[in-house]
Design brief:
Strand order of the largest sheet: 1-2
Number of strands: 2
Number of helices: 13
Radius of gyration: 18 Å
Structural class: mainly alpha
Strand content: under 5%
Distance between the termini: 23 Å
Helix content: 55-70%
Low-confidence stretches: 1-9, 239-261
Order of helices and strands: HHHHHHHHHHHHEHE
Oligomer: single chain
Largest sheet: 2 strands, antiparallel
Length: 261
């Protein structure tokens, strides 16, 4: 409870210290380790947060859920690299480390983050190959299928993108990222489906244990408002385009994180 209170008060140093003490006292407690990762995220220590979550990914049964948390921290680090002095070098070091680690077949996290980097840079063939590798290692995970869908959308293959994103939702219907991506993919072709997906995303994103990015929620709310007025929102961002830096970020209620989504 004290860790969560420190987070709500934006006292990052105290939050890290309290979470570290709790994790050391109960080193196998998954929720406490995620609370520690959340504390480092709030402190702007993204690489440390990813290290903690990666270790939990290697040990835990809810790997697809932890992979989603790792993705959220990585993407926030990407935004911070553009918005804050000094973050670009740290992000480059993380990318280089993941690229080196990805040569090991068993390092699924590194291959996944390399795939995100490739997708961000518009290396669509390489990104698709990376995400297919992750999918073979984690056949029940929705995240690689989400990014396969985005890559196909950027290739202007709407049918393949739609099939991939529907597959992601079928695998993990409670993953908010899948519904958010579906809304952007189908926005022009099927506005009612996009509206439904945004409503579902907003409902799921507020649940405990989700990465809470207020900027992304506000963008989704704005897109939903446009759809309800009959205005089609923008589709999935193209390579190199980044959303604005979110105004708040945390693992919501980290002391009560659920298991697999």
């Amino acid at each position: 409870a004290r860790v969560a209170l420190a987070g709500r008060r934006d006292d990052a140093d105290v939050g890290v210290a309290l979470a570290q003490a709790a994790a050391e006292a109960w080193p196998t407690h998954g929720a406490l380790l995620r609370a520690l990762a959340s504390a480092h995220l709030r402190a702007g220590e993204h690489a440390k947060s990813i290290d903690i979550l990666s270790a939990q990914f290697d040990k835990g049964p809810d790997r697809h859920h932890v992979l989603g948390l790792i993705e959220g921290v990585y993407c926030d680090m990407d935004r911070a690299a553009v918005a804050e002095d000094g973050s670009l070098a740290a992000f480059a070091r993380l990318d280089a480390s993941m690229l080196a680690r990805s040569s090991r077949a068993e390092d699924v996290v590194a291959r996944f983050l390399v795939g995100l980097r490739q997708l961000r840079q518009g290396q669509l063939d390489a990104a698709i190959a990376s995400m297919q590798t992750v999918r073979r290692a984690l056949p029940q995970a929705s995240r690689p299928l989400i990014h396969l869908a985005v890559a196909q959308q950027w290739r202007s293959d709407q049918a393949a993108a739609r099939a991939a994103i529907e597959g992601a939702i079928a695998l993990q219907p409670n993953d908010p990222a899948a519904h958010h991506a579906r809304a952007m993919i189908v926005a022009r072709a099927d506005p009612p489906a996009a509206r439904e997906s945004l409503q579902r995303y907003l409902a799921l994103a507020r649940q405990p244990g989700r990465l809470q990015f207020s900027g992304q929620r506000h963008q989704a709310q704005a897109a939903l408002a446009r759809l309800e007025r009959g205005v089609t929102p923008a589709e999935v961002r193209q390579p190199g385009q980044r959303p604005e830096r979110p105004t708040a970020h945390s693992l919501a209620d980290p002391m009560a994180l659920p298991g697999p989504v």
